Structure to design on (570 residues):
């Protein structure tokens, strides 16, 4: 199954709107810090941030619906639930920045696993792992190139936070489910 | 469907017993503070607090069962779960008082959304919104009349906490489900 | 139903591997502290810690499958979910050590109740209560005999933390479910 342009646009907008909420949490809690640049800023995020999150959401959603049939019985309730789970997890990474990084990483890995157990299926694991590898890899390059950096308390994974792969995994699970919802809403275009 | 007096009394007692636990959390964490008054105090709460929470629980439960048929398949497990979800959310508002209010508000909104996704239905949204509007409105008047106030870190919404509507929303969802449980237990009085 | 030796060994290994993660959280956050002894240490835990947690996991799992038939429809997703729920709860007890012990205890009791509501059944309550009584009782003796102690902020229950029974209850619920999973995987040996 492939997503319509309308469906992809919906996923892009969702990611582009919700992503900066999490980014703002990281900035106000001192978890991450952007370096000055010539790029226009929206809220606390440079313009590329919502674009990248929106594109990643649409791409992961499109990958999900290509991997396997959409689960029947999913509705907007599951979409709200999985987005809320990711935001709760995101909020913990910011609010609890500066506490034991080991304990915080266990907490975030646990939250990611719970998010999958509540909302994910097998193909969602593929999307979660792609996000968990690709996201932190891109961010590691971002810190090396001085776009931003992580607080000293949260930079133990090659410059990014040890909990970052788990947070991205939860994001990938959410994007997969949102892809299913969007596919289920647009006609029967199997 | 209407609730029996016994059912309403059960909801009142539940609210009146559990509410002060949350209130005590807010007082001991310095999230809220009561001004001295002539009203007798139970624990940390003035006598009117458990009465108001009990009445609100019974009223929202009664409204829920008037709005739509009770869901089949609900049992005490769901009642325990939804009450626990509200207490967990309540505890976060107190324990994390003084951290970033933006991040904390996102956390509490996320917890409220998860609580609905796990336990609510459409009519529960009506009860949640009524609580989310009425509760903070009443509390804003309470701060204006110097009954109590919120900590400086948590008074950004006309004197009350920005996360307060979300906490009340979760409470409304819980009261709605408890109303369903109570209605389901008392005879078949459709 | 009885568990095979292979099943019991699996439960033992799970408990022995995951338990020390939680123990490490408590040590690095200063929630608990071991006194020096002649016992070899693995990570932060004396050698007996993983052994005791592994044995308790296997024993509770074996008790569960003797109490009642295994629920159909359980799979590895539920196992991952319930273990994650316990680790999240464990992480909160460590990260939030030193905040209001009343609020933290409400949080942990709420998390334990949610864990049961999401993953438990009636026999899991029996396992949960056995763990909630036996675990803290053993730990109280452990503090009296100077094997370890709890931080001043978390020693209000005869020397151990007031939230400890709730954390053990969640552990008991998890061990019960893992017992069911292990029993379901090994042949049809009713």
């Amino acid at each position: 199954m492939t997503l319509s342009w309308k469906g992809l646009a919906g996923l892009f907008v969702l990611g582009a709107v919700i992503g900066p909420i999490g980014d703002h949490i990281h900035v106000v809690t001192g978890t991450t810090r952007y370096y000055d640049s010539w790029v226009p800023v929206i809220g606390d995020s440079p313009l590329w941030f919502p674009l990248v999150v929106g594109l990643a959401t649409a791409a992961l959603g499109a990958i999900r619906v290509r991997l396997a049939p959409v689960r029947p019985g999913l509705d907007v309730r599951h979409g709200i639930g999985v987005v809320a789970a990711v935001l709760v997890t995101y909020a913990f990474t910011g609010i609890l920045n500066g506490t034991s990084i080991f304990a915080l990483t266990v907490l975030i890995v646990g939250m990611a696993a719970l998010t999958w157990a509540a909302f994910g299926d097998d193909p969602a694991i593929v999307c979660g792992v792609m996000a968990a590898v690709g996201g932190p890899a891109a961010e590691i390059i971002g810190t090396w190139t001085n776009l931003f950096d992580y607080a000293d308390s949260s930079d133990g994974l090659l410059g990014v936070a040890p909990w970052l792969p788990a947070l991205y995994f939860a994001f990938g699970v959410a994007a997969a489910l949102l892809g299913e919802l969007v596919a289920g809403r647009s006609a029967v275009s199997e």
